[in-house]
Design a protein that fits this description.
The complex is a heterodimer of chains A (248) and B (580). Chain A is mostly helical and 248 residues long. Chain A has helices spanning 42-76, 98-132, 147-171, 180-211, 216-246; strands at 79-81, 86-88. In chain A, strands 1-2 form a two-stranded antiparallel ribbon. The longest helix of chain A has 35 residues, at 42-76. Chain B has helices spanning 18-23, 28-58, 72-91, 93-107, 116-135, 166-195, 208-239, 264-298, 305-319, 334-346, 348-362, 371-393, 396-402, 406-436, 442-468, 488-518; strands spanning 4-6, 251-252, 255-256, 548-550. Chain B is globular. Classes of the chains: A mainly alpha (248), B mainly alpha (580). Chains A and B meet through helix 1, strand 1 and helix 4 of A and strand 1, helix 6, helix 7, helix 8 and strand 4 of B.
Chain lengths: 248, 580
């Protein structure tokens, strides 16, 4: 710290009034996630990716806020009925397969727990990695439980469950274009499934980094950020389920 | 006592090959320039379309290049594509993604954006989006007709017009891709601003340009998700048989439409919830550049720095509460119209704060009338003239008769179009030396300024009168309409002014490319400015500061500080112990 860079010249202090003030304390800043020794500073990088995720969740929230507001507004809106020659409320409540969706919800909540265990596991591994690298030293737990793999399996399980729910909707006579209400059900569940599939891709990527012998810290960042995203997906699903169940 | 500490400051090494260096570059500076040239290509496409429209309006029989004699539906295609290209690929792209990408990291003392790969991805996604948009011209039926706002049911039904088939699909897909690109960009801007500021660069020491980019990114982050939602619904209506926006009982060309139960108003709400913040996405970066330049070239600190920041924040906040003022015509309840009206006029307060602070900055300054400064002053002028018609249109009782007339065209072109373009020009003349290492020609720059400034007013001022005289917008020609015949000379005047003004832009393009090769070599700090981009080499090295991270000791606009030996104090200059 506090040594001069090669290209920047420092002006000698000149007597001068005003301006400046004290240098504020600013805990983080500059750099790009590398410490002074040139090694990547994974702590800083992890914080940045978490911040990026928090920022990135905002537009997803806005997307579903938009869908929700369209859903609620459309529900209360009459549409023009040619036969009656007047506005009429033609909202057709969708009879969603509640039990099946409840099972899916449980699967997703459990996957959120396994995801959290995988996140803590990888954080733990990252902390112990330097010691585990020393030959002849065992930090125990050589073959950790595959929480990550279990999460991926549960994620796929949820997607299959959602597919079954769509089939159940079809057998009940609610197709995508049956009525605006059924369109909204497919839209909300479908967009959520799409976002969850993105989370599964991220987990598969994390799993592949372990095969590619990437640094444990880099893998940890992917798992950590995906875990927060995953929890967000679980919350989002509970919200959507509640919306479809109680505001149909 | 130092300006920096040693740190190998860059995550990725300077790339070697041509493709990694100039095409798929991770360097925010290269990406910024890529965005800039994308916007330059787009602005000339958009201007060409407007030229065709202006010529067609007054000489409807004229045979024009590429399009021949323009049919009414072709006029609507031109209008749609002009608006879309200008709003998305010029006004959203150049000031924010172009200059923001290049100068946000440098001005806050960072070696690059927070996520360089995401940054590259967001540029190339924007590029794909632009290509898809242009492709709409070349598909059967041609480009869509429904305007940049794409109101259903016109936009939702392929039967509704010649351009409403594949052309419209391409339009929606292009906009959806653009949303994705903008969201990636916004994420990067926000994370970079929050996380990568150099030591001492507190939020309240950031140049106002950075504040503008930061707030714009927040607006983009919250607004583009909503447009994406609307676009998804529209695509589903068009291709999957849903009825979000299409009501029942429609008959197009004698054939009943199958859709049933949708509401076209839903689109308007979703679209304008995005659309109004989008207006500020276009203008806020220009405000930032104007603030930076007025302070620099007046050799005075910006008047009311904090007030400027809070004014921008409140403009951004209010921007999300006023979307209804675009919909006074839609038959909304007078009570909601009143609420939207009051909130809209409230935006006049922070806007006036900004304007008076700009004037206060100029007051008794040692003004250097160089080209960037002229464009910054031009920005303020256009912002005032375009902004003043805002409170008129904010009132439902005045908006309803004026809404579908040229008054609105005049309003939004002055404030959103030309003012933002002046912000881009100001930024170009100001930062060109840093970006390309040479100065732009002052003589040509001033000629360009006066022609464009007078030309812009000559084009858009008369449109207010056209609007008040009842000339409707979106009509392809007026020569057949008797009651508009007395207005035709005004239209001819506007067309002549447009031809001259658009031709004058060739001076700018010549100046731009000629100066890149032959301009006078630029020093490190040709404008004697204080912000961080001027402490580094010209053009900046790959990691921006040549291996060091700067330490910031001063606010961004310390000009003419009493007792200082120069009339400007760089942000990295050492702190002086007070001598009492």
């Amino acid at each position: 710290m506090a040594t001069l860079g090669p290209t920047l010249t420092v002006k000698e202090p000149r007597p001068r009034h005003g301006g400046g003030g004290d240098v504020p304390r600013f805990p983080h800043g500059g750099g790009d996630g590398r410490g002074d020794d040139g090694a990547p500073d994974y702590g800083e990088r992890l914080r940045r990716y978490r911040l990026g995720l928090a920022v990135g969740i905002a537009p997803i929230v806005m997307l579903f806020v938009s869908f929700t507001s369209a859903y609620i507004v459309r529900q209360g809106l009459g549409s023009w009925d040619n036969k009656l020659n007047a506005y009429a409320n033609d909202w057709l409540p969708v009879n969603i397969p509640t039990l099946l969706l409840l099972i899916n919800t449980i699967i997703l909540v459990v996957s959120s727990i396994t995801m959290e265990l995988a996140r803590r596991q990888s954080a733990h591994e990252a902390v112990w990695a330097p010691i585990a690298d020393i030959p002849g030293v065992s930090v125990g737990n050589e073959r950790p439980f595959p929480w990550l793999g279990l999460t991926v399996v549960l994620g796929f399980g949820f997607l299959i469950g959602q597919y079954l729910a769509w089939r159940a909707l079809e057998t009940r006579g609610f197709f995508l274009s049956t009525s605006p209400s059924s369109s909204f059900v497919y839209l909300l569940t479908g967009m959520h499934a799409l976002h969850l599939a993105g989370g599964i891709l991220a987990l598969l990527y994390a799993a592949s980094t372990s095969l590619l012998k990437r640094p444990i810290e880099a893998r940890r960042i992917v798992i950590d950020v995906t875990a927060w995203y995953w929890h967000f997906m679980a919350l989002l699903w509970i919200y959507i389920f509640a919306l479809l169940q109680f505001a149909r | 006592m130092s300006t920096g500490h040693l740190a190998p400051a860059h995550a990725h090494a300077a790339p070697g090959g041509f493709i990694r260096k100039y095409i798929f570059s991770l360097d925010h500076k290269v990406i910024g320039i890529q965005y800039y040239f994308l916007a330059l290509a787009a602005v000339f496409t958009g201007m060409f379309l407007s030229l065709l429209m202006r010529i067609h309006m007054v000489w409807p029989e004229a045979v024009l290049p590429i399009f021949g004699t323009i049919k009414p539906e072709q006029y609507l295609s031109l209008m749609t594509m002009h608006g879309t290209i200008m709003v998305f690929f010029v006004l959203t792209t150049a000031p924010q993604s172009g200059f923001g990408n290049y100068f946000l990291p440098i001005q806050i003392g960072a070696p690059d954006m927070a996520f360089p790969t995401l940054n590259m991805l967001s540029f190339w996604t924007t590029f794909v989006s632009f290509v898809v948009m242009l492709a709409a011209f070349f598909v059967p039926g041609g480009a869509p007709l429904s305007g940049w706002t794409s109101y259903p049911t016109l936009s939702a039904l392929p039967q509704a017009g010649p351009g409403q088939g594949l052309g419209m699909d391409l339009w929606v897909i292009s906009i959806a891709i653009f949303c994705g690109a903008s969201l990636m960009g916004a994420l990067n801007f926000i994370t970079t601003t929050l996380d990568l500021r150099a030591k001492g660069m507190t939020l309240m020491r950031m140049p106002l340009t950075c504040w503008a980019w930061f707030i714009t990114a927040i607006l983009g982050l919250l607004a583009f998700g909503v447009l994406l939602a609307a676009g998804i619904l529209l695509l589903m209506d068009r291709n999957m048989g849903t009825s979000f926006f299409v009501p029942g009982g429609l008959i197009v060309s004698g054939i009943p439409i199958k859709h049933n139960g949708g509401s076209p108003l839903l689109w308007q709400h979703l679209f304008w919830f995005f659309g109004h913040p989008e207006v500020y996405i276009a203008i806020l970066p220009g405000m930032g550049v104007a603030s930076q330049l007025l302070s620099t070239f007046s050799r005075k600190p910006i008047f009311g720095y904090k007030a400027m920041v809070y004014a921008m924040l409140s403009i951004g906040l209010f921007g999300f509460m006023v979307w209804g003022h675009h919909m006074f015509m839609s038959g909304m309840s007078p009570y909601s119209a009143f609420a939207f009206s009051v909130l809209t006029m409230a935006i006049g307060v922070p806007s006036a704060i900004k304007t008076f602070n700009w004037l206060g900055t100029l007051w008794k300054g040692k003004i250097r009338f160089q080209t960037p400064m002229l464009f910054a002053i031009g920005f303020v002028s256009l912002f005032v003239s375009g902004g003043l018609s805002g409170p008129f249109l904010a009132q439902p009782s005045i908006d309803i008769p004026l809404h579908d007339t040229y008054f609105v065209v005049a309003h939004f072109h002055l404030i959103m179009g030309v003012a933002a373009i002046f912000g881009i020009f100001a930024g170009t003349y100001y930062w060109f030396p840093k970006m390309f290492g040479r100065m732009m020609s002052e003589g040509l720059g001033k000629l360009h300024f006066f022609l464009t400034f007078i030309g812009a007013y000559a084009i858009f001022m008369p449109m207010h009168y056209l609007g008040m005289a009842g000339n409707p917008r979106r009509y392809s020609q007026f020569t057949e309409l008797k009651y508009l015949a007395p207005l035709l000379p005004v239209h001819k005047f506007i067309t002549y002014a447009a031809i001259i003004t658009i031709s004058a832009q060739l001076i700018f393009v010549f100046n731009l490319f000629w100066s890149m090769a032959k301009g006078k070599k630029a020093g490190q700090n040709p404008w004697e400015s204080t912000t961080l981009e001027w402490i580094t080499a010209t053009p900046p090295p790959h990691d921006n500061f040549g291996g060091v991270t700067p330490v910031v000791n001063h606010g961004p606009y310390e000009y003419s500080v009493p007792g200082a030996s120069t009339d400007f104090i760089m942000q990295t200059d050492p702190v002086q112990a007070p001598t009492h």
